[in-house]
Design brief:
single chain, Butyryl-CoA Dehydrogenase, subunit A, domain 2, alpha+beta, 3-methylmercaptopropionyl-CoA dehydrogenase, two-stranded antiparallel sheet, Acyl-CoA_Oxase/DH_mid-dom, seven-stranded mixed β-sheet, 3 domains, Butyryl-CoA Dehydrogenase, subunit A, domain 3, globular
Length: 606
């Protein structure tokens, strides 16, 4: 099985030359210590950890999986040692506040770390990844006592965190949550209920696990307005803040899954477990959205990660594996056949993977700048700033999560295709990437849910199309600046056309929905995918503009690197972006062709 190599050259190109992160960090209070030298050192050390420690555990962790014995979960061999190295390296607290033991670096630094970890070994990265959401939730909504009790051990990595939403009778529809929380005389609560699909719900990596749990108070209103949020630790902290007595939360079973088998996905039973209210009563869902948005951005990495990993391995295989002769003539006459890399259809698959991986990474880094400003607004108590950037990021979040994970699945499958029959067997690792990636379009909201969130809530309901108008104006302004460059002009013109079309499509759907509410649901998936393709086109044009400038004036990278960026941009605009038009056609199709068939007539069996 090939090894993972951290794509540091592409990462630094985006950070230093495309999005000017040094200048960006200079505007942030948290960016004071994020100097170029420090950032380079962190990226290098993290890449080394991912390549040498996490990547070798990827296949073995899948083969062994997690084990459950008497309510206690054991992770695969090597995971505990790897996690201890992770914690000892201070990686968990990279972007955490200094007052709770963190390094206080910008939030985007944590995303860069997560990308490399998630690409090298996604199942492992989920354990510390879930903790980050718990940390953010407690930091933003917890009392000072709760922060003092939980944030330091979470930041150090001695404790881990989870989020507990889903129940057997409900997934996305959280209004159906039944877990009960009964007030106690000492101010705590007794939680009773069952949660399912809880990632990292139990494991042996840390001495304690802090569950963030949605539950109902006895007099709570029905639906989502009656849900509260609670901290429920596996072990109750004692008076010194150390691990105390065992709490009433136990892993009832491990889910038998298609992939990410080294990540413990648990059924958790809360049997009178002691919990502590976090945030106001009946405001749990609003507080949880902090956690969910963090998780969705993190999940978008599982679109970029598998595309990158599958591309790296498929590219190495295509250079080494020989089959037939290229149609344009022998490329390696001294060999029995030409390498796969010389066949145009194999190039199509590899370039698709490359365009998805590098385009998706750039979309994440573009959005991470917004996240930095949003987090700083929250931490500094600047509600206006926090809300401004939360709205900007909120528009992009469903696109990042939905679009990139769908394309991540496509890229992973293309990797298997490049390997042919060898991709279908376990020893090369390609089929594992497919299995591990498939969950990404499901958890933290399926693609359909992301699409409804984007079109129904962010575009139509909340902003009446304003979110699209604002974002497309930024795209159009950028495209106009490059109309005079003959290399960039065709792509800039295409983007200008698409910004107009995006707004027109939004208006047409808005008008159609006044007569037929099903239009919103029937159009939402195609609207999300269309939005994703146009957004990635904008991001590729930004990379191409930098490449043109650096080829003329010199840059940090080689001529070949910048030329590859231009060639990949051309491939994206000519081979992948045309897909947007099929989505444009489909989203305007009436809902009747979906809804007219009676449910009982969908199938006829003997």
């Amino acid at each position: 099985m090939p090894v993972y190599k951290a794509p540091l050259r592409d990462m630094k190109f985006l950070l230093n030359e495309v999005f000017d992160y040094p200048g960006h960090y200079a505007t942030l209070t948290s960016g004071e210590n994020a100097t170029p030298d420090i950032v380079d050192a962190i990226l290098g050390e993290c890449g080394k950890f991912c390549e040498e420690v996490l990547s070798p555990l990827y296949l073995s962790g899948d083969e062994e999986g997690c084990k459950l014995d008497n309510g206690e979960v054991t992770t695969p061999a090597g995971y505990r040692d790897a996690y201890q190295q992770y914690a000892m390296g201070g990686w968990q607290g990279l972007s955490a506040p200094e007052e709770y033991g963190g390094q206080g670096l910008p939030a985007s630094m944590g995303l860069l770390k997560q990308e490399m970890m998630g690409t090298a070994n996604w199942p492992f990265s989920m354990y510390p990844g879930l903790s980050l959401g718990a940390m953010n939730t407690i930091f933003l909504h917890g009392t000072e006592d709760q922060k003092q009790t939980y944030l330091a051990p979470l930041t150090e990595g001695r404790w881990a965190g989870t989020m507990c939403l889903t129940e057997p009778q409900c997934g996305t529809d959280l209004g159906q949550v039944k877990t009960k929380a009964e007030p106690q005389a000492d101010g705590s609560y007794r939680l009773t209920g069952t949660k399912i699909f809880i990632s990292s719900g139990d494991h042996d990596l840390t001495e304690n696990i802090v569950h963030i749990v949605l539950a109902r108070l006895p007099d709570a209103p029905k639906g989502t307005r009656g849900i509260s949020l609670f901290i429920v630790p596996k072990f109750l902290p004692d008076s010194n803040g150390d691990v105390g007595e065992r709490n009433g939360v136990v892993c009832g079973s491990l889910e038998k899954k298609m992939g990410i088998k080294a990540s413990a996905t648990c059924v958790l039973n809360f049997d009178g477990a002691t919990g502590f209210l976090i945030g106001p009563e009946n405001e749990g869902l609003n507080c949880m959205f902090t956690f969910m948005n963090t998780a969705r951005i993190g999940t978008a990495i599982q679109g970029v990660g598998p595309a990158e990993l599958s591309y790296q391995w498929a590219l190495a295989y295509a250079k080494d594996r020989r089959s037939m002769r290229a149609l344009s003539g022998k490329k390696e006459p001294d060999q029995v056949a030409d390498s796969l890399i010389h066949h145009a259809d194999v190039r199509r698959m590899l370039l698709t993977q490359k365009a998805i991986a590098e385009g998706g990474r750039a979309m994440l880094y573009y959005s991470a700048r917004l996240a930095d400003h949003m987090v700083e607004g929250f931490t500094e108590g600047d509600d206006k700033k926090a809300e401004k950037y939360d709205d900007k990021l909120g528009f992009l979040t469903p696109i990042l999560k939905g679009f990139l994970t769908e394309l991540g699945c496509e890229a992973a499958n293309l990797g298997v295709q490049v390997f042919g029959g060898h991709g279908y067997i376990r020893e090369h690792g390609m089929e594992q990437i497919v299995r591990d990636t498939r969950i990404a379009t499901l958890y933290e909201g399926t693609t359909g849910i992301q699409a409804l969130d984007l079109l129904g809530r962010k575009v139509l309901l909340t902003t009446q199309g304003g979110a699209v108008r604002e974002f497309t104006l930024n795209i159009a302004n950028f495209a106009r600046k490059h109309l005079t460059d003959k290399r960039l002009r065709p792509w800039a013109l295409e983007l200008l056309k698409l910004t107009g079309q995006w707004n027109l499509l939004t208006v047409r759907i808005m008008l159609a929905a006044r007569k037929d509410r099903d239009v919103v649901s029937s159009a939402s998936y195609d609207f999300l995918m269309y939005s994703g393709y146009v957004t990635m086109a904008y991001i590729w044009l930004r990379q191409a503009a930098v490449a043109v400038d650096k080829l003329a004036n010199g840059g940090e990278e080689s001529t070949g690197f910048y030329q590859a960026k231009l060639a990949t941009t051309e491939f994206y605009f000519e081979r992948l972006l045309p897909r947007a038009q099929s989505h444009a056609t489909s989203m305007l199709s009436p809902s009747k062709n979906l809804m007219q068939l009676d449910a009982e007539d969908l199938a006829f069996t003997g």
